[in-house]
Amino acid sequence: TLYNTYSFFSLYTNLDKFNYAEADIPLAERPELDRWILSELHTLIKKVDAFYADYEPTKAARAISDFTQDYLSNWFVRLSRRRFWKGDYQTDKISAY
C-alpha cells in the first residue's frame, strides 16, 4: 500500500513538475481534508515517538502501517484523486501535494 501510494504521488508530481518551494500554503488556507491528514500525521508522530521511547518498535511499525492503509491510502488519496486529476495547477492542487 505504501508503494502504491508513493507511486500515485510521484506520478502526478512529476507530471505537474511540482516544486516543494512553492508548497508553503498556510494551514488555515488549506482544504479541510488536508488539515485532517496533517492532524493525523502529527498524532502518528507522537505515537511512534512514544512507542520508540518505550522500546516498542513493533507497535511503532503497526501504527505507521495503520496510518498508511487506513488514513493515507483509503481516505486521503481516494478523496483527493480528483484534485490530482485536475488540469489546472492551482492552490488546491498544490496543497494536495
Automatic annotation (TrEMBL):
Task: Provide the Methionyl/Valyl/Leucyl/Isoleucyl-tRNA synthetase anticodon-binding domain boundaries.
Answer: 34-88
Please give one Gene Ontology molecular function term for this protein: ATP binding
What Pfam families does the annotation carry?
Anticodon_1 (PF08264)
Q: InterPro entries attached here? A: Ile-tRNA-ligase_type2, M/V/L/I-tRNA-synth_anticd-bd, tRNAsynth_Ia_anticodon-bd
For this protein, the record's SUPFAM superfamilies field holds:
Anticodon-binding domain of a subclass of class I aminoacyl-tRNA synthetases
Query: Which terms are listed as keywords in the entry?
Result: Aminoacyl-tRNA synthetase, ATP-binding, Ligase, Nucleotide-binding, Protein biosynthesis
GO BP term, example: isoleucyl-tRNA aminoacylation
Q: Which domain of life is it from?
A: Bacteria
Presence of keyword Ligase: yes
According to the UniProt entry, the coiled-coil residues are: none
Q: Note the PANTHER family from the entry.
A: ISOLEUCINE--TRNA LIGASE, CYTOPLASMIC, SOLEUCYL-TRNA SYNTHETASE
Can you name this protein? Class I tRNA ligase family protein
